[in-house]
Structure formats: C-alpha cells, structure tokens
Design a protein that fits this description.
About 11% of the residues have low confidence. The longest helix has 15 residues. The protein has two helices and 13 strands. By secondary structure, the chain is mainly beta. It starts with 8 loop residues before the first helix and ends with a strand. The chain has one domain: outer membrane lipoprotein receptor (LolB), chain A (Clam), CATH 2.50.20. A hairpin with a 2-residue loop joins strand 3 and strand 4. The radius of gyration is 17 Å and the shape is globular. A 13-stranded antiparallel β-sheet has the order 1-7-8-9-10-11-12-13-2-3-4-5-6, covered by helices on one side.
C-alpha cells in the first residue's frame, strides 16, 4: 500500500504542537572568538563519500541496509544519498543541491510527498546544504555549550557545539511543524562522526547511521 510507511493527516493534527527542538536557556554571545565555529570538521564539508550501515524506522515499520552519502561536486555542492538493502534493492536515491532536491528513484511504498519533504529537511540539516545562511551565536547558561542559530531559506536551525568549541554535538531544525528534526552526532574519529541518529519525533521516524568506511 502506497502510504504503508506514513502516518495519516489526522495523526499529524492530533500530535501538533508536541515537538520542541529549540535549545533552552540561550544567552546571546558577544564574544568574537567563536564566530568562526559555523564550519567545524564534520559532515559539513571535509569528505567525498561516506558509507554507513543504516536503519530507518517509522512506527512499527523497519528498513535496514547501507546508506552512501557522496559529494558529487563542490561548486555548487551536489550530494547523492542512496539507501539500499544488502541485496541491492534501492529504498531511495536522492540528489540534493543548495537550491534543489531531486528524487532519482524511490521504493513505491515510501514515495509520499510529505515524507520526501521530511527527508529533504533531514539531509539539508545534516549536510548544511542551503542556498544561503544568516546566523547568530548563543551560549547555554549552564552547560556553556555554543549554539549557532540560523535561517537558511525556509529552514530554521540550531547547531549545538561542545563547550570546548571544537565538536558538533547535535543539529535541530525545521521548516514547519511536521518536519522538525533532531540529529545527534557522536563517536568522532579524526574529526568525523561515526554515529548519527536522526529523529523526526512528529511522525515517529528514526534513522540510525553507523560509519563503515570513508
């Protein structure tokens, strides 16, 4: 069935307003020494390709396989994201540029416009692939973590960095209430996250990525 992996609009409306992704207790920073922190060493630019074992769960539905994230070009940035199972069946093959997003192929039960839009927001947040960005720097009062709050077209995002200012811990963002996402990055190796969790709480979807090779 076409909408097998997607919740109904009624479910959306019943859950509206339940998702909060903005970091709390932020104080605007006036320190000039953290203004450079917007492009650290992580998935935002220092790789050509990364292969992950991957799972995608929506409610009770589960998919597993491999996800390849490949930078096809740098100017402008062009990314391919391919999620397939171990037997070679492709769940989806997506192309993303700062100003466009293309579905090259998609497993028919997943091909729902609203779900594709949520995936686009997820991967734009993960790869920081936007046409342009305006941002403001904050610091959390208790943890002293650094927060970059920005607007990128229709997407509002918050990037949380460690108090030592050298590690990206999480990214949160949304373009509307339905595509709100929280991305946790961890287990860094040579400045690159080997574990990524993408949570779309509003529709009960989670993607888990574990690095195989880079």
């Amino acid at each position: 069935m076409k909408n097998l992996f997607f919740v109904s609009l009624l479910g959306f409306l019943l859950m509206a307003g339940c998702v909060s992704i903005k970091p709390k207790n932020l104080t605007r920073s006036t320190s000039g020494d953290i203004s450079h922190i917007d492009v650290p060493a992580n998935l935002l630019g220092n790789f050509n390709k990364a292969l992950y074992t991957a799972t995608l769960d929506i409610k009770k539905h589960h998919l597993s396989g491999l996800m390849l994230i490949k930078k096809m070009d740098s100017v402008p940035e062009v990314y391919r994201l391919v999620f397939a199972n171990e037997f070679g069946m492709t769940y989806f093959d997506l192309e993303m540029k700062p100003d466009s997003f293309k579905v090259i192929s998609c497993f028919e039960p997943l091909y729902n416009k609203a779900l594709i839009k949520i995936l686009e927001t997820d991967y734009r947040l993960l790869l920081s692939c936007y046409p342009k960005i305006t941002s403001t720097t904050y610091q959390q009062e208790k943890s002293r973590q650094i927060i970059i709050s920005g607007d990128a077209g229709k997407i509002k995002f918050w990037k949380t960095y460690s108090a030592t200012r050298d590690t990206l811990l999480s990214i949160a963002g949304k373009s509307n209430f339905a595509d709100a996402a929280k991305i946790n990055l961890s287990s860094y190796s040579k400045g690159f996250p080997t574990k990524i969790i993408i949570l779309n709480q509003f529709i009960g979807m989670q993607q888990s990525l574990q690095l195989l090779s880079k």
